[in-house]
Design brief:
By secondary structure, the protein is mainly α. It has a domain of 41 residues. Helices cover 37% and strands 0% of the residues. The chain has three helices and no strands.
């Protein structure tokens, strides 16, 4: 009688990745009421966050110019224009 060879299936090799993966720890369950209604917060419009935009040189000059004019007008144009300009720059730099 001839011996019959049985087909042997090769075993799957385990990879290092599968072995290196730790088992997830069981998280403790917290008591939560499932029937509790969810409270919704009152709808409020989101506050817009504004960033201080840098002022370019031309815009800064114009703003100081206008401020200097109003300072001079308030003083009756009695002082020096340079003094008004310096005072306006000081206000602008605060």
């Amino acid at each position: 009688m001839a011996e019959e060879k049985k087909a042997v299936k090769p075993k799957k090799a385990t990879t290092a990745k599968a072995e290196a993966k730790p088992k997830a720890a069981a998280k403790p369950k917290t008591a939560v009421k499932k029937d509790a209604p969810v409270k919704k917060a009152a709808a409020k419009p989101a506050a817009k966050k504004t960033k201080a935009s840098p002022v370019n040189a031309e815009l800064r000059y114009r703003m100081i110019e206008v401020a200097a004019y109003y300072l001079a007008e308030k003083d009756g144009f009695a002082g020096s224009p340079v003094e008004y300009w310096i005072a306006a720059e000081l206000q602008f730099n605060k």
